[in-house]
Amino acid sequence: MFGASAGAAGEVRVASRPSPIWKSLQGHSAKLLSASNQRSAVEGIVAKRQLEITAPAGYVATLAAIAEHQEAEDVYSELGEADRCFVRIVCDTSKVQAIVDATHKAVEKGAHWRLTILPVEAVVAPDGPKQEAPVEEEPRFSFRGRTAPREEILHEVEKGADLNLDFLVLVALSGVVAAVGLLTDSVVALIGAMVIAPLLGPNLAFAFGVALGNVSLMRRAMLTNVAGLFFAVLFATLLGMFLGEPMSSAEISARTVAGYDSIAIGLAAGAAAVLSLTTGVSSALVGVMVAVAILPPAVTAGLMLGGGDLKAAGGAALLLAVNIVCINLAAQIVFVIKNILPRTWAEKKGAQKALWTNFITWVLLLSGLAGAIYLVRW
Q1: Would the pLDDT of 140 be above 70?
Q2: Average confidence (pLDDT) over 113-141
């Protein structure tokens, strides 16, 4: 897990470890609001976050009020030296986004403040008096489900959008293993290639960039995705030219024909990838599923192109295109369902335009590819 911090200008930064104790904040006043459902055992709190806010002292009451309004489980505030305040909040993950956005609105622009989001692994609390549950309880079921804060998701996907030597090396290594698996009909080798293929990150980053209207993130993700695919296909093409003989295997044949079932697989992979990201569930297995839809067709297209079998190469390329379009379309739809939006009205307006533009583009591309599948099969 990680922590996200927002600085003076509202910029979100990330820390991989909890922040140190603020020694300069010698408490002149303190306030502690504890949840009534604390228990004496150590509780695993996967869906909890701790927010640490430092700001000018005049905002201490406002920040504490924001936490109370969002029904935070635990709030602690104190005034320190240099006319500063420190507020620590423990709350459910679903409340984090509202608290972050409310803090952005409450603290004036130009004021020096910082908000750090940290994971809560466990809580130890003494036994307290048992209290009856309130009469009116919030429904346990939510259509959108539990969603990680926007800042955490951004930190996670930004790493996948980086084009660097490590990314290219992983693409090359996964391409080697995938080529061996395809040529030898080794399912084990193919699974190994999918595990190490770093192809989930760029696609998620692009879809998230569309949801936020973040053009810079979209461009970085697009460049990384294109570079990774180009590198994989180029490597496989050179390998096919080196082998210089007709290549045939059951695994290769299965990836030279695109069908309507490929659309279902691509949509499922994209939706599962976003759900794993927004709910905080490990995305390792989902990444394998996405790699299943992208890496083998890309390598197959390169091998067939290098071996001179243009028809088979075209079939693999069609399958690859279908999977990429479906993954991005499904990812974009799930981000909308999970209500992943920018913070300000102006940003939301720009994101809405980018969202509709990309949605229409993906739908038109998918329609064209579905028509191509029909013509090829007919």
Answers
A1: no
A2: 62
Confidence of residue 207 (pLDDT cuts 50, 70, 90): confident
End-to-end CA, the chain: 50
Kindly report the number of other CB atoms within 10 A of residue 318's CB atom.
Answer: 20
Q: Is 242 exposed, middle or buried (0-12, 13-18, 19+ CB in 10 A)?
A: exposed
Q: Would you call 8 helix, strand, or coil by DSSP? A: coil
Angle between helices 215-243 and 150-160 (to 10 degrees): 30
Domains of the chain: 3-123 (3.30.70.120), 150-377 (no CATH)
At which residue do the structure tokens 């909040």 appear?
89
Task: Please report, to the nearest 10 degrees, the dihedral formed by the alpha carbons of residues 30, 31, 36, 40 taken in order.
Answer: -10
Token pair belonging to 87: 């507020």
| Strand order, beta sheet including 114-119 | 12-15, 3-6, 114-119, 48-56, 84-92, 74-80, 30-34
- Whole-number Å distance between alpha carbons of 304 and 244: 10
> Is residue 34 pLDDT above 70, yes or no?
no
pLDDT digits (tens, 9 = 90+) for 144-164: 555 667 777 787 788 888 899
What are 203's two structure tokens? 């696609």
Can you tell me which residue has the tokens 């038109």? 364
Instruction: Say what the pLDDT of residue 355 is.
Output: 82
Cα–Cα nearest to 33, from 55, 80, 65: 65
Of residues 116, 126, 110, the one with CA closest to residue 12: 116
Write the pLDDT tens digit of every residue in 49-62: 888 888 888 888 88
pTM of the full structure: 0.69
**Token pair listed for 83:** 């006319």
Residue 151: alpha-carbon gap to chain centroid: 10
User: What does the block give as tokens for 355?
Assistant: 């969202």
Please compute the mean of the pLDDT values over residues 373-377 and round it to a whole number: 86
State the pLDDT confidence band at 360, using cuts at 50, 70 and 90. very high
